[in-house]
């Protein structure tokens, strides 16, 4: 089992730290999904600390606040790379890598917001030297081309109560 943690903000940081500590105690690997525009602050410092501890850090989009274009179906602002052509994905990845460099965060893996990456995004990731892309149904090795089937089990949902119950069911 591998746990990926996203949505780390200053408001949720203490709960994320508690979950990470419990996963450490159980020797469960953690991947922190990090949005490039997070900027300097306690969240970035915590992610750096987790990385030094041995956790993986994956790029998790550039800016979740901007509604992506070129989409036949509306998926919300957070599905930033879901329908981008390769050219637009390249531009966002250039901006994301510059923001990561400014924060001292080097990454070689990508987990798209909402777990959906367009083929143009996958192509752009290869061109920018990313080694893996984890999406809703697979983990792609972008170097060898190998695709491993996987399943995302999300805690999030419309009800915080549902989220809490599912979290307890999986962690306890």
From TrEMBL:
GO BP field: carbohydrate metabolic process
Task: Output the superkingdom of the source species.
Answer: Bacteria
**Cited Gene3D superfamilies:** Glycoside hydrolase/deacetylase
**Membrane-spanning parts:** none
Q: Which InterPro entries match?
A: DUF2334 (IPR018763), Glyco_hydro/deAcase_b/a-brl (IPR011330)
Provide the protein name.
Answer: DUF2334 domain-containing protein
Q: Which organism is it from?
A: Amycolatopsis thailandensis
